[in-house]
Specification:
six-stranded mixed β-sheet; alpha/beta; binds magnesium ion; Molybdopterin biosynthesis moeA protein, domain 3; Molybdenum Cofactor Biosythetic Enzyme, Chain A; elongated; binds adenosine monophosphate; Molybdopterin biosynthesis moea protein, domain 2; 26 strands
Amino acid sequence: MEPFTAGLISFEQALDTLLARITPLQDAETLPLPAAAGRIAARPVTSPIDVPPFDNSAMDGYALRMADLTGAPLPVAGTVLAGAPWQGEWPTGSCLRIMTGAPIPPGCEAVVMQEQTQQQEERIILTAAVSAGQNIRRAGEDIRQGNVVLQAGQRLGPAELPLLASLGVADVAVVRPLRVAILSTGDELQSPGQPLAPGQIYDTNRFAVHLMLNKLGCEVIDLGIIRDDPAALRAAFIEADTVADVVISSGGVSVGVADYTRQMLEELGEVAFWKLAIKPGKPFAFGRLANSWFCGLPGNPVSAVLTFYQLVQPLLAKLAGQQGAALPPRQRVRASGPLKKSPGRLDFQRGVLSRAEDGSLQVASSGHQGSHVFSSYQHANCFIVLERERGNVEAGEWVEVEPFNALLES
Ligand code: AMP
Ligand code: MG
């Protein structure tokens, strides 16, 4: 008899196939900095200025010329403030009081911090040795004019946008938002807020996918719930294909009698693959419609979110031209309790990663791992990734964990 897992492609092969097919969008738009938050840089940005733009003091203290350091107390000839370059006389044998960020006055070779001086009337005595150049931040020491400060493909957040602001850059070219059409399939589905008829359940997936797409900065076109009817599905797919870069459905992608998703994808486009050796999430279809990419998520909500996270998220990142979104970090930790696993598929169990009393990291199952038990995400903070051929895991065995990224954080 053919094993249950025959004909399934591996997770790695699926991800490679999918990423190999996707080429980044080229459409860019220019936005003022605050509006560019969360977006992806379409082009590299070079600095129009040196940073810092002029030599300046790193301390509140006194500006010195080395030749004036004879050991005698130094009279203070004036004060240099931030934003006000020194324009007065600086007599030989004296020093200038200087504030952090103030321009270094001509001839100054070092700044001594205030804490390393003693004041005697209008003079100061140095209480520590001084070396030439100390406490002076040099022009261009951080960034030189013309240096590339941001690569194309970087997501713009609190580390990147203030950096651009510090260079006087007011707007930035970003990739336009991806347009993603979503729909749920299933005669049994009802929208929250409506009463449930016998046999109905509430649509979880469309809501979950919508939220995750919002987090990723996509424009969402919500086509609602589509009945398990080939004509209705065909019409929805055609509509979605005309408006979206990516179409994401859920349900109907398995081998049930009302599962029309794959059939429709074959009719209107092309199926690249649709059966994965992963758990949860075995039925996941990837392919193309006439104008858009297509992802058919499994109907079970745990599987829908898992496959969105593990496969659609990298797809969208690549399509949006995002760099550095390569493999998510994983680490090996000990399981603090047993984990159920049958050989044959790569398992992504929901886990709780925590610190044991001895300070080491440990992971436990977040509870019932059924692909319909959506609450298993609620207390979890990582995926426990169990190798395809592995069986049950005993407490104390090493397992690989992948902490959730911001997509699954509250
Ligand atoms: P299917 O792949 O369409 O056979 O669906 C598999 C299971 O997931 C069934 O129990 C469906 O009722 C359930 N399901 C499908 N779509 C959704 C959805 N959008 N929200 C919650 N459960 C769903
Ligand atoms: Mg269904």
